[in-house]
User: What shape does this take?
Amino acid sequence: MSRAIKGAFLLLLVMLVGASGQAQDRNEGYKTVAPRAGERCLVCRAPLNETDLVLLVRGRRVPLKRAMVDSFMRDPDAFFSELQPKGALFHESPGAEGSEVSVETSSSWLTFGIYAVSALLFAGLSGYRAVSRGLPAVSHFFIGLLLHLPGYLYVLTRPAAAGQNRIPAGLGKVPETRPPVPCHGCGSENHPAARECSGCGKQLEPVYASDVSRLT
Amino acid sequence: MLRAQSLKTKIVEILHSGSGENERPLLRKNNESNIPGLFIIGDLAGAPVIKYAMAQGHEVIEHISSLNDAVVNDKDVFDVLIIGAGASGLNAALQAKERGMRYVVLEKNQIANTIENFPEGKWVYAEPDSQPPKGKLWLDGASKEDLIQNWRRIIKDNKLDVRVQEGVEGLEKAGGVFKVRTAKAEYRARRVVLATGQRGNPRKLGIPGEEREQVYHRLYSPRKYKNENILVVGGGNSAIEAAVTLSQQNKVYLSYRKGEFSRIFKDNDAQLQAQIKAGQIEPILNSEITSFGEKEATVAVADGRSQKKRKLAIDHAFVLIGADVPRAFLKSLGIRMENEWQGSLLRSTLLTLAGFVGLSVFGAKLGGSPNLLGWDLAFMPDWLGMAMAIVSLAGLVATGARGDRFAWLGLSFFIWYTIYGVKVGNGEEFWPFTGWGYKLLSFLDRPWSFWYTVIYTGLMTGFGLQALKRWGLERKDRFQIWRFVSLVSFQWIFFFLIPEYLFQAAVQYQWVGEKLASDPTFAEQAWRSYGIIYAWPLFFYTFFYNPHQIWIVWGLLLTFVVIPVFVLFNGKRYCSWICGCGGLAETFGDRWRHLAPKGKAAVKLEWMSLIVLIFAAVATVLVLIKDIYGALYSTADLSIYIYRICADVWLVGILPVTLYPFLGGKIWCRYWCPLAKLMGLQSKLFSKLKWSRFKIVANDKCIGCYECSRNCQVGIDVMSYALKQEVLDNATSSCIGCGICVTACPMDTLSFGSQNTMQ
Assistant: This one.
């Protein structure tokens, strides 16, 4: 823990010491609003006063000294990009260079996406139902994935399989094992297929048929 | 040179930590090893229970018999030669006979040697019951004696050709035929099935005197020893059971190298404590035996930072420290091991670098400035750059195919560095893509970040279906079905459809109301919709850059109300049910989940995420000071820059995804994600206050097969909890509630929630 805190302070120190300014012209088309106290020019980093202005660019406040408006307008994207968060988790805003994302061109992707989500949902429901009722899970999952609602409705009409493959009430999956059986004589716990008690040797009635008899 | 060697050793050590304890041979489809025609089944191939081992024996012969050249009419050549007469080997032999193949079984010791070495009367489990037995070998819950008797009868009834006491001394392949040499004969076979198991290969201390007569590596008949001083070495269940049994008639010293017995059954622990209290067992913890003498053993006991030597007067010693994979034997056959780091780190580094240099030179054609660390490379023609890149990548693939794992690491880095390095932004790409990479990859007038999301979602969907099939459908587990459907659906809805399309449609068609749709602080910032699901500090931009108040309110609510309530009931399940980062790890990374770093050292490193959390908190405060008070501009900008490059590009992207095939998928989530840490701290607090509703409990059925620990993506030694029937929650672990341990357990030992429910 102490190493973690030391590390964080060290990084903070580096940030405070290493901070450096990045300084370097009309407000055509952009709405302007009054500056707030403490705002600094995006171009020159100087504090703004009442005569300066703030442009609203793509929803963001771009504080500028009057003298720096021309500089900004010569290459707004270059300066504006400083305000744009970028990272592995999200995208640039629509309208930035090379990022022409528009609703008009997206209908096919959108339709495909909705199809995919719907397929997943019905596949999940179908798989869930199949597993619950002891039916072949993979094939029924893919029926739901490919056919959506009709596929799921088909799975709903399937009768449950007979035997032990069904999920017993109250459980989330088909159990891999059976609970041990106590011996009435000595109380020792025995395997449910055991024919004699491991504790006292008393004859036991196996709770289920052994694998070998199931096999033959 | 020495330093380079030591660096390589350290890197290999880290990369190998995931599979150190349960090393297995490298296996491909149908259990085929790197040597075509040589198959490995059973214990050695990781079958955790006898029934799975038998199933492998049956399936491998079914696969071989389906091949065109399965049966050859050559009296001198067996169709299949099986090495090992255990559960898998015998079932394979029965199936080979069934299929009319010429076969032979060679066994070094005796039939069912591993089971023969179990203590008298030990119960042999036939679980899992949900899996029907495959093949003709009998299996049922029975005592070891009954089981072996049945197997002997089956061998006799089927006239199986099993040759015992005939160990394999050499194996080579020439002209498509294996030559197998034993002390008695030489055999020729088209295919070989290796079913030797590993428990017959007891691990040794490798110290002077270990070969003495009074030092054993197995305990057959404990009742034979009376009124003796006996040393038992080990801290697992075999050692504890031996110590407890022997202590009934003898004085027992129990030497263990660790400070506590952390991997033993609850019952064994109780019996051990009783015998210690009775003075029959003297535990010597943090100790190592250094030598065995005629009537004594020397033990070094840790005493702070120093060691104290102690001489123990003993009559017999039992070294019961588990079994080793017969590595030397496998290597002598030319078999490669899983996660084996062979090859040249230097060569792979140079080839990867050469690939990037080539791209830098090629980039000149597209507006880039070719350079290497500032050294101008404009004198090189662009075609040469492209040729250099192609040759380098081909070199990585070729050396990788020959077994050089460093080459695959280099190639993986090359791919993910390119993807994330370009995604940093147009004009901000990492070298060698600066100035041209983003434009080049922005296909069809869509930005590279869009295609990145398409690739991400595609990978999650494809591999998600595969993982869903593996864990949910095939294992008949409803929990896993919903978990993978949830992960993939969250990705599609909240990280693709909403930010890319639905948000803009909602604004354009004013589904969000006229006022909101015409407010630029809302309408033109579709990227903020990632904040619907991603909470601070994973997505701390929610609070920056003049956000609409709706985002501030939701961000605060999500981070400080929704997430804590979710954590209270579900622990860290956000990571395994909702999050896109965790989602890629659980889907694309699923196939490598067993390679997650394990052990105490790996767990200790989890403190790193606290650093990232503290840094994110500091950066948030700085940016808020900048936005609200107009102060600390440069410092705030710098902190965001550092966070963006270090965390958002390197730690969440390039490094962890590069390492998926080598260290599993959860490197970011486990070691660096600040939200995972925040939830972990909350869950830990709730667990300690006993408010948490999240826990995994165990019943008394654990057989120590290691499947739970092996498949844990966050490297928790689940088995140690299961053996002791201890509750696993976030008070003592970083569990994310994926439930794979519960699903993988062939004995239904683990379950969520109370101890009375199975699942």
Summary: The CA atoms of residues 25 and 70 of chain A lie 1 Å apart. The first strand of chain A starts at residue 31 and ends at 33.
